Amino acid sequence: MRIFIGVRPLWAKGSDPYENFGEGECIMEQKRELKKNLGVATAMALVVGCVIGSGVFFKPQAIYTATGGAPGLGMIAWVITGLASIAAALTFAEVAIMIPKTGGMVAYLEEIYNPVVGFLAGWVQTILFYPAMISALAVVCAQQAGLFIGEGFTVPLAIGIIILIIFLNNLGSKVGGSIQVVFTICKLIPLILLMIFGFVKGSGANPIFSPMVGDGLSPAVVLGQLMVAILFAFEGWTGVGAIAGEMKNPSRDLPIAIVGGVSVIMGVYFIINIAYLWVLPASELATLTAPASAVALKVFGDIGGKIISVGIMISVFGACNGFVLSGSRVAYSLAAEGNFPYSRNLAKLNNAQVPTNSIILVGGIGCIYAISGQFNLLTDLAVFSSWTFYTLTFIGVMKLRKDRPDAVRTYKVPLYPVVPIIAVVSGVYVIINQLFMSGLQSTVLSVGSIVIMLIGLPVYSVVMKNKEKKKTAANAEKILT
């Protein structure tokens, strides 16, 4: 996840009641040169640390529900989706390194296409993607807590978790960052224990690779549903470009770090899912909202299982904190440039020098989404909204190769154009599958995501008009003085 820093807004006071709706000027602080001291091993560890989160603990339910309780295609889908993520990350990295601007994907799409596309990416990330991820993680964290306090409190607990994270992040970026480090370490403990003891204490009597899908199901349609579910578990590879400036030899080492890192993740996911099946059959995992906890209870007994469940809950809390931390910086980055509604308010820093209103905005929308109490629904919504713009970025690599053939590229995606084409095809497949092939709920979610994106068009128009009006007034004032 990319964190935005070094943006300091300078705002002029005014009495216009609409002046907050997109205006302002900003200055970008000069960034010091980053030290190029990262090798392959460190870079690979960063990739792994950014990606492994909550999906591996909770997605088996969605996976085996989609397959009709059959394990085969679910297991294969972890590998297919991992390979698609490798192609996506390798492709994305070329754009990230070629356009090293604050704002991440927003800046990339703005430069590749036009400012409207860039704004829509930032709009969807702020209003939809990050809040949906935050609410989904808060919901499963609350569901885990239900193992200790009883069921029926998921929604109020989820909202309480988000409010707590908002409060902690408003204490300063050091607090939010420290939480992230501690909880990242904690998430590895239940992973390792479940992998080891799942094989040691499981019966191994359940089928793992057959049947592929349940009776009457189409493998092509089911695979699309599985990819959407599993892509949530691989979310985080978009941050790979952020480490390139600190690598000794990015053109050589970055693809190794990406392929190596995502391969390690794919291996971990594949092994732990075999461990789950070693203990419980796919048909049973499909019925469990917290499959990893159920496996832990089976393997370790009531007390040991609940200890592992606490570890999973800590891991999920840390992931939720990470999305509040990074999502609020997307909103702040846009506001600091005057390119978002109510920019003046969203760009304000509190006494701890963090964008308090941006944190409240992203977290507050997450609280609204959490009312649904639906983890899989929220993650599917987030994945669809993000992969729409990821796919545009993949296409952008080929567009830049055509438009700027002589541009300096310290890193080029290997096996061009094969790898970008794989990334584009994967993205298009996910989008089409969600829109037309995965049932009414999926179609409604996808159309809702598109509607929210399109609402951004009139918002952008108003923001730009007010920004232009401010510039005209400022220029007139300069002439008069």
TrEMBL record:
Q: Which domain of life is it from?
A: Bacteria
Keywords in alphabetical order: Membrane, Transmembrane, Transmembrane helix
Task: Report the subcellular localization.
Answer: Membrane
Which Pfam families would you find in this protein's record? Answer: AA_permease_2 (PF13520)
Specify the protein name.
Answer: Amino acid permease
Mark the transmembrane ranges. Answer: 38-58, 78-100, 112-133, 145-169, 181-200, 220-244, 256-279, 307-325, 354-375, 381-401, 413-432, 444-463
| Molecular function GO labels | L-amino acid transmembrane transporter activity
Transmembrane helix: is it a keyword of this entry?
Answer: yes
Principal place of residence: membrane
